[in-house]
Amino acid sequence: MKKFFLLMSVAITSFLMSACNPFTEETEQEKQDRLNEQEILDYLQANNLTAQKTENGVYYIITKTNAAGQIPELGDLAEMHYVGQLLNGTIVDSTSPFLNEPKTFIFDNVPNTSEVLIGLESGGTLLKEGEEATFLIPSRLAFGSRSNSILPPYSVLRYDVSSFKVKDEQEQITEFIAADTLTNYSGIDSVITAYIKQIPDSQNAKVAAPDSIVTVDYTGRFLNGTIFDSGTDFIFTVRSKDDRSNAQVIEGWDRALNGMKVGDKKRILLYSSLAYGSQGNTAGSGNIPPYSVLWFDIELKDVR
After folding, report:
1. For the chain, which domains are there?
2. d(CA 193, CA 269)
3. CB under 8 Å to 233, separation ≥6 — which residues?
4. Is 101 in contact with 163 (CB distance < 8 Å)?
5. What tens digit of pLDDT does each residue of 14-43 get?
6. Which of 219, 218, 202, 188 lies closest to 261 in space, CA to CA?
7. Higher pLDDT residue, 201 or 248?
8. pTM for the whole thing?
9. 80: closest CA among 125, 13, 140?
């Protein structure tokens, strides 16, 4: 009987302790979310700041408005300068306005902290071009449990964002063409092309057409010049835009190759819809993010 009452006493004590402490069943992430939230609220109060909160937990203050600024849309390219710091003022991350090296990323709605902090991308959707803001970002939308000599794990971060610019795909291509050395760009079938080398019609060179088997050399780049893929003597069959089910390459290639002569070399600029679209591409040697505008230099070596 004494043993029974002893067990009952332990059970009741355990129940009461659990009832008095609602956090005993928290996961580590839930605990850090709660602590981060309190840190942010304490920081706002201590610094007499008034902020709004997004659905995912980022607090923000628009410090400079621009009512006429371009609004970011899915697939747009963002450029921004920022200073990221702990709430005690220690700087842990920043861009370089002096060297004109802003942070660039695509609004793709795909969480990937290797490209940009999730909290920064979600916060950026609230800004118009030319606006400035302060973001208070909980750790789960920043660096999480990662740490280094100046960044403790589960740190709340303050990011002060400036020089915010937005470019849709058309603006990206227009800017590229304006800075390029080639001047003979034209748009055919939604593909923007310029000849690097053109074979005269008088030479009776073979011409690529739908169902032709072609051999090409190519180099693929992002618009900033970074090479993501290249190849020599690559063979495939050109398909028409009405025969995509049998396509062996991205649609922009098929459209650009159609009508090229053996010996021609073209620079082609592809909207993401004619390349890897909203999914991007992680296969092969290059990692192409969603909504990437691409640049290819392609030389047609043979047609049969």
Report:
1. 28-167 (3.10.50.40), 170-303 (3.10.50.40)
2. 6
3. 215, 217, 301
4. no
5. 444 455 555 568 899 999 999 999 999 999
6. 202
7. 248
8. 0.84
9. 125
